[in-house]
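Saturday, quiet lab. Running sequence design on the C-alpha cells for the scaffold JK sent over.
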C-alpha cells in the first residue's frame, strides 16, 4: 500500500514539473532566439554625451542607414584622437551631418557603456576646417548640481567649472543666463579637447 502511495505521489510530482515546463515555454518570448528585439537597446536611452570627437572616417555596411531612430546595418568610425568605435545594428541614433562620406566633415557624439555605443549622433563640423569647438543649441537646464547641462535638443553635456558667459550685458550666474536666454536666444560651445561646455553665447 505504501509503495502504491509513493508511486502515485511521484507521478503527481512528475505531472506538476511537466506542466510547469510547458507553461514556461508558452510564456517565453524568445526561448530560441527568434525575437528580433532580443538584446536591443532601449529607445529611451539617455542622450548623455560621454564621447565626442571629429570623425576622420565613417565606414558602413552595404545599405546602412538610420530608420525610425535606429541604425540598420553595422558601421565603424575612426576619430581624430585615434579611437576606433564600432556601431552595432539597431543602435539608437540621429544624423544631421550633410555628408558622412567626406572625411572629417562630421562630429561624432555618443553615450557609451564600456566600449559599446548606446546612442550616438553625427553633426556637421564648424566649417571646412574643423575647429576644436562645436556650436550647439542653447542650454535649457542643469543637472547634478551644475556638472551637466541639458540642451534644447535633449542632449546632455558635461559643463566645465566656471562656464564663460559671453553677452553684451551682465548675465549673472549660469542659471540666470539659462532663464534669460533659453531656448532660442543663446548658443552653447562644446570644447572638443576636453569634451565639455566651456562657453555660452547669447544671440538675441
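Result came back. Writing it out in full:
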Amino acid at each position: 500500500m505504501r509503495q502504491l502511495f509513493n508511486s502515485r505521489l511521484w507521478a503527481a510530482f512528475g505531472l506538476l514539473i511537466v506542466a510547469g515546463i510547458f507553461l514556461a515555454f508558452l510564456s517565453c518570448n524568445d526561448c530560441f532566439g527568434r525575437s528580433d528585439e532580443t538584446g536591443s537597446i532601449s529607445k529611451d536611452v539617455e542622450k548623455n554625451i560621454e564621447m565626442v570627437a571629429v570623425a576622420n572616417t565613417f565606414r558602413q555596411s552595404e545599405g546602412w542607414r538610420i530608420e525610425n531612430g535606429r541604425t540598420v546595418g553595422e558601421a565603424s568610425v575612426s576619430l581624430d584622437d585615434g579611437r576606433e568605435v564600432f556601431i552595432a545594428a539597431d543602435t539608437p541614433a540621429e544624423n544631421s551631418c550633410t555628408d558622412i562620406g567626406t572625411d572629417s566633415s562630421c562630429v561624432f557624439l555618443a553615450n557609451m557603456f564600456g566600449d559599446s555605443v548606446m546612442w550616438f549622433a553625427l553633426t556637421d563640423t564648424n566649417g571646412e576646417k574643423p575647429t576644436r569647438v562645436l556650436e550647439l543649441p542653447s542650454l535649457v537646464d542643469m543637472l547634478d548640481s551644475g556638472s551637466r547641462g541639458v540642451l534644447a535638443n535633449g542632449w546632455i553635456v558635461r559643463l566645465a567649472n566656471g562656464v564663460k558667459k559671453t553677452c553684451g550685458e551682465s548675465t549673472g550666474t549660469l542659471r540666470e543666463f539659462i532663464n534669460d536666454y533659453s531656448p532660442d536666444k543663446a548658443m552653447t560651445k562644446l570644447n572638443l579637447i576636453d569634451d565639455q561646455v566651456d562657453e555660452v553665447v547669447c544671440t538675441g
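Notes for JK: Residues 51-124 form one domain. The longest helix spans residues 2-27. Ask whether to fix the surface positions before the next round.
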